[in-house]
Amino acid sequence: MRILFTFENPLPSTEADAEVFTTTARYLAPLTEGAWLHVPLKDAAGRAAAEALAGMPVVDARAPITPAALRHFLCGLTLPFRREFRRADVIYTRNLWVAWMAILFGQKVAFDHYRPWPDQIPPLQFWLYRLLSHPRFIVKICHSDYTRRKYLALGIPEDKVHCIRNGYEPARFQARIPLEEAKRRIGVEPGQKTVVYTGRVNHKKGLALAVEAARERPDVLFILVGSYGEGPIEAMARDVPNVRIVPYQPADKLADYVYAADILLIPPSWLPLAEFGSTVLPLKVFFYLASGRPILAGRTPDVGEVLHHDENAHLCPPDSVPDLVAGIDALLGDPARAARLAETALADSRDYTWAARAQRIHALVEERMSTAPVRAGTWGRREFRAWRQQSRHWLAHLVNKGAWVLPPRPEAPLGMDRARNG
């Protein structure tokens, strides 16, 4: 099997989608008979960086870097004219436009993306149904069962949509750093209790909760890693002395902050999933598991697929500062329980390496390539009514808010149910 991976944004990139796609491709490529990466290039240095990152030959998409809309359009439009497109057995992409162009020009497609597009842009639902139901659209890979269910609600056959979750790099955690040594490395006083967040520091991640919790617990140092400059969270934290804002850190330095955590925080908020829709089962969940540090998160349906209260994490009700503070107190006040949760998380992490993800995807794509097309989907009156109703809701949201992405209505939390799907 030969795969042409296509990515529509320039590399290297600090964005999570780039990390997921390029790392998956890098682990998948050795399992194939041939692999290439189709990507827009700035210059020769950009080509070298992309090849080193992906670990395979790079094909120039011949698209301008700016504006972004034109870049995406040309990445799809020029793809069918590349020699590697004709040589590949399957096109592997995260871009719907690219997937559609590949289908139109006779190729098979594997689509790997985390967003629940049927909920977020409802007018696309019928087109998505038709695209995914095409015989040459062999599989839609979701990072969460939450997203998978949104596609199945369109009437798409279950065999077409699979959940294979993200992973982490074990090499990042081979040299474990003792807690107090990690604190010393980042300039934290011995014995100082710490709550650490890593990721993008912005208003879309629910970090206002962390700043408010810091006001309630002035004896605990809250370290928020991943700032790109002055923003709402940085301004909010300016007068809170026990909140430390840290700029974006490369992977080798990030480990110091992770290991310096008495508690690793995923802000317990509906905002990333249900209001902004930009985060579904965040990537940090997986390397948090592998760190061997206690995790505190919210009872939201995406996170609840992997983190389970009082098993491998402490989960609290979303968007409640008192409940967040109570969770911090519970973990800091019971070191034995915190250690137990961390040990279980570490054991669970062994199922979530990038290598394991690539092997699952390879087996799935090979199986889908070798079987006859599945039965057609079902788009009936129920799906049509839901499409019409949700599209009206989306249009009203666009007019009133000026936002193209419709926030999905929150689902019930998964609580302590274990949903190990994929």
TrEMBL record:
Listed Pfam families: Glyco_transf_4, Glycos_transf_1
Keywords, in A-Z order: Transferase
Domain Glycosyl transferase family: 181-345
Domain Glycosyltransferase subfamily 4-like N-terminal: start-end pairs: 63-172
Listed GO MF terms: hexosyltransferase activity
InterPro entries xref list: Glyco_trans_1 (IPR001296), Glyco_trans_4-like_N (IPR028098), Glycosyltransferase_grp1 (IPR050194)
Domain of life per record: Bacteria
Keyword Transferase appears in the UniProt entry: yes
Protein known as: Glycosyl transferase
Species per Swiss-Prot/TrEMBL record: Nitrospirillum viridazoti CBAmc
